[in-house]
Amino acid sequence: MNSFEVFLEVVLRFSDLKWSRFRDDLIVKCMKALRKFREGKSLEEVMSDKRVSSEIEGILELLFEFARENPPEEVSRVVDALGIFTKAPAPCKMKIINILETMTGRREVKG
User: Fold this and answer.
1) Is pTM beyond 0.85 here?
2) What is the mean pLDDT of residues 65-87?
3) Is the C-alpha dihedral spanning 46, 64, 10, 73 positive or negative?
4) How far is CA 85 from the centre of its chain?
5) What pLDDT shows up at residue 60?
6) How far from 61 is each of 14, 47, 49, 103, CA to CA, in Å?
7) Helix or strand or coil: residue 21?
8) 20: left (phi over 0), alpha (psi -120 to 50) or beta
9) Is pLDDT of 107 > 80?
10) Residue 9 near residue 104, CB atoms below 8 Å
């Protein structure tokens, strides 16, 4: 899974696109988990830290695999991108998601 796909998976998992509502708190937890994985923590260690893992258990394995298969710089890029996303207003978040869905092939291209 590449950086775009993991970013999109995180934001879609914690977003209600119909109402443009976003669980930025859970996206921040994903950022914390990715940092821990980048530093060499195991999946079990992160799962046992409930301050980080509660409510994001379903995506931790994916984040762990991504961090394990990619260099630390790539993990840092995703963490930084998620941080930018959490600070954006809802209309911008919707556009970011639309762009990434198009770039990753999750959305049909018009024309």
Assistant:
1) yes
2) 98
3) positive
4) 10
5) 98
6) 16, 10, 14, 24
7) strand
8) left
9) yes
10) no
**Closest Cα to residue 21, out of 95, 94, 99, 107?**
94
Task: Report the SS3 class of residue 16.
Answer: strand
Place of tokens 């708190």: 25
Spell out the SS3 assignment of 32-71. HHHHHHHCCCCHHHHHHCHHHHCCCHHHHHHHHHHHHHCC
Amino acid at 41: K
Measured distance CA(4)–CA(72) in Å, rounded: 15
Q: Which helix (H) or strand (E) holds 4?
A: helix 3-13
Per-residue pLDDT at 111 exceeds 80 = no
Location of structure tokens 């992160």: 46
What is the residue type of 94?
Answer: M
Distance CA(55)–CA(26), nearest Å, equals: 7
